[in-house]
Amino acid sequence: IGEGEGEDKCSYIQIINGGKKFITCNIKGYLASRIAFFLLNIRISSHNIIFTRHGESEYNVEDRIGGDSSLSNHGKQYATILSQYLSNEFDQTYINLWSSDMKRTRETVKTYLDSNDENHLKYINYTEHKELSEIHVGICEGMTYNEVKEQYPQEYQARSIDKLRYRYPQGESYLDMIKRLEPIIFELERTDKPVVLVAHRAVLRCLISYFLDLPAEEIPYLDIPLHTVLKLTPASYYNKLEKIKLM
Ligand code: G3H
Q1: What is the predicted pLDDT for the residue at 191?
Q2: Burial level of 63, CB count in 10 A (0-12/13-18/19+)?
Q3: Is 53 marked active-site?
Q4: What per-residue confidence (pLDDT) applies to 45?
Q5: 60 has catalytic annotation
Q6: Is 48 labeled as catalytic in the residue annotation?
Q7: Is 102 in the pocket of ligand 1 (CB under 6 A)?
Q8: Do 242 and 233 meet the contact criterion of CB atoms below 8 Å apart?
């Protein structure tokens, strides 16, 4: 489409020189504007994204959901091994380090930050994001899955029938989370540096599914093990995901 062409015939979004120039023509309505906004934010540069869950938490040990517990001893060990891995991976490379604002992710990240001297810290841009919090489990806060099954059998059943859409009473569904993670996805698309993102199982399921283009119904079942780094490498038409078990 040449300059000024098609103006009275069609709607289009033209991206010139890999996003240096952006032309929209006859873009009207919610969906078309959202697409324009999305295209404005996607990247063509390729940077790795390292995803990982926090180290094992005290609640993980008891198989409890929700809460804001600290790392277990095993989890602290992972934080140390992860920080060695990250130091090898990103020696004198500027990176963005993101975590949720929950104790278990902050403690995991702190071990890495504390292992760097001032010379190395200048390469790490650390920010906490509220949007990266784990799924809010509402009335099931602090319970084990067995307790949920016993005390709220109908809720338990409803969730097993439609895990993607099921919303915990006073809590969230996976679909709610996908919405709240949208700004994070835009930031990940836009960033010009590698990102290390330390978050939670349900959060990583949503983010990684986006980058792997997985069907929505598969999101709540994606395997995101503890003590494992998930390394995403962007290619032209797909993203490659490596699972590196550190412990
Ligand atoms: O509730 C917290 C869990 O990490 C999310 O797992 O959706 O499989 O229950 P789930």
Answers
A1: 86
A2: exposed
A3: yes
A4: 63
A5: yes
A6: no
A7: no
A8: yes
Token pair listed for 36: 């324009």
Mapped onto helix, strand or coil, the DSSP state of residue 156 is helix
| Token pair for 123 | 């390469």
Q: Does ligand 1 lie within 6 Å of residue 135's CB atom?
A: yes
pLDDT beneath 50: ranges in the chain: none
Q: Which residues 6+ apart lie within 8 Å of 117 measured at CB?
A: none
- Region of 4 on the Ramachandran plot (φ > 0 left; ψ -120 to 50 alpha; else beta): left
194 ligand 1 Cβ < 6 A: no
Tokens at 16, concatenated: 């010139």
- The whole-angstrom separation of Cα 50 and Cα 193 is 12
Closest by CA position to 145, among listed 163, 165, 131? 163
Dihedral sign from CA coordinates of 97, 220, 56, 226? negative
Position in ligand 1 atom list of the atom nearest CA 200: 4
Atom of ligand 1 nearest to the CA of 220: 7
Task: Tell me the pTM.
Answer: 0.93
Residue 21 has phi, psi (to 5 degrees) of: -130, 145
Sign, CA torsion 96/101/246/46: negative
Q: How far, in Å, are 27, 59, 208 from residue 51 at the CA level?
A: 35, 21, 8
Q: Are 93 and 123 in contact (CB under 8 A)?
A: yes
Spatial separation of the C-alpha atoms in residues 233 and 195, rounded to whole Å: 11
Strands (E), 49-145: 49-53, 95-99, 124-128
